Amino acid sequence: MVLSGNKARIDNFTDAQFNALQNEFVRVKNAPAQMEANCKNALLMKELRPWLTEFGKLGERGLKTMSLIKEYKAGNDQAFWEGYVNNRMSKEDVAAYEKHAQPAQLTPQQVARAMDIPIVEADSHSLSQIRDGVRSCMARPGSVLILHGSCAAKEESLPAHRVDRELCTGCRQCLRMGCPAISFPEHKSAIDPNCCAGCGLCGEICPVKAIQKGEKA
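Now predict its structure.
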């Protein structure tokens, strides 16, 4: 356990440290009810409530732990171990915590819908869809653009792209992407197959379609 940057054993708390940590757990325990009372957006609160419930439980368990510290320091071993066993999380508690306690469980779509924000969606690997999505958002003030698609760098099966140097006009449009796989030797674009993630966005930018999908290895 760390307090003010210093590690402290449960039998080595100062009164100030103990009271400070106990007050923090009180705030954690009370935070869900305070947010429930002050949040005016019912849909957002509906999405947050499961997570807040688990957050409040952390405060409750923390306060029980502080009580155990008192028992330990007082030498009440039996009361300490009985309390320790009773304060352990059950399998149901662990399952509920793992399901709801992580903020990542809330998707951008859930948050946007809860806040009644218009959603525009597009494929992150499609430049045309991204452009259309941006235009839609600009035409609908207050809307949000959400892109779908995994990182191309993680898709090992995607083949690298290549440049047809006969078609390339040297316009440098592809260089504007800032992709490290694209270079410009001898006034023509070139793609390093060892660096290319195969996302294909450079091919959509090329005005003469000189950038083409390569063959799978």
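The beta strands are 2-3, 6-7, 119-123, 144-148, 161-163, 182-183, 190-191, 211-213.
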